[in-house]
Every structure is written in C-alpha cells, then in structure tokens.
Amino acid sequence: MRALYPGSFDPLTLGHLDLIERGAQLFDGVVVAVLRNPSKNPCFSVEERLEQIRRATGHLPSVEVAAFDGLTVAFAQQCGAGVILRGLRALSDFEYELQIAHTNKSLAPRLETLFLATATAHSFLSSSVVKEVARFGGAVDHMVPAGVAEDLTRLFNQASPASL
User: Fold this and answer.
1) How many other C-beta atoms lie within 10 A of the C-beta of residue 90?
2) pTM of the prediction?
C-alpha cells in the first residue's frame, strides 16, 4: 500500500523527515506531496521545497516527491495512495487534523487517514517556528536537515554558523 504525506513543507523540518522515514518503513511507498496553496505566502518556491525534500530523502528509495494543487483526496487517488499520513505534535493538532480526516473520508470513503505521533525530540517543531528562529539569526541545525539550514541561512542573508 502507498501512503500520501501532504503538506506545505515550508521548510521541511526534522519532524517532517521523521514521519517520512517512519512512513517508509510502514508502507510500500510514500509520496511526499507539496501543496501549491495560493492563500499562503511561502518563503521557498514549490520547486525549492521539492528539491529540499528530495535531498533529505535521497536515502529512502520508496519515497517519491511531487507537487499538487486542489483536493488532497483527488491527488491521493491520482497517485494510487490508500492512506493519507499525518503527524500529531500535540493535542491542539488533533482537533484540526480530525476535522480534515472526516472531511476527506466524506469525499473519498475508501481513503484512510493514519495519524503518527511526532517523535518527542521534534514535538516542538513547526515550519513557522523554524522560520522565526532563522529570521532572527538563531541556529536551526537541530531543527531541519543540513541542506535546509543552508537554504534558510541564504534566504535570510546570514553568515553560516560554520563561518562564525
């Protein structure tokens, strides 16, 4: 069975990567799908985010990376996924994610949603927190894959920690 892991991934965090790696152990394949969301103003283009994910998941042969727009359930059906994979960091995530899961189920009854609890070490992470820390010059190496940390440093025009 294939799983779809959708999100904005702006940027990819170690929490996202943990879910991708765990999903790759649970399923025959995982499609990590970057949503083209016109209502958001991302720091990285869709193409940059796709490349960040490809670099970080290169060691996982069963992981594919794609972009999509429209309904998640339509893309899940298009790519042959039977499961939508979602991560839960805290109880506050559950109410929103459950509402989305029920909506998706009403649109595509055969499609299941599987929630995985985020690893404790990454439970504080969100893309918003990472961007805020990076914007003000804080270290993000322990929050994102190395290539993403470099991209954030470049984005916010800061000296890399190695050069300080």
Assistant:
1) 10
2) 0.91
Active site annotation includes 36: no
The rounded distance, in Å, linking the Cα atoms of 110 and 19 is: 22
Candidates 36, 40, 135, 142; catalytic one: 40
- List the catalytic residue out of 49, 86, 122, 127: 127
Q: Where are the alpha helices (DSSP H) in the chain?
A: 14-26, 46-56, 72-78, 91-107, 127-135, 146-155
40 annotated active-site: yes
What tens digit of pLDDT does each residue of 118-132 get? 999 999 999 999 999
- Give the span between the Cα atoms of 113 and 127, in whole angstroms: 22
CATH class of 2-120: alpha beta
- Spatial distance between the Cα atoms of 130 and 155, rounded to a whole number of angstroms: 13
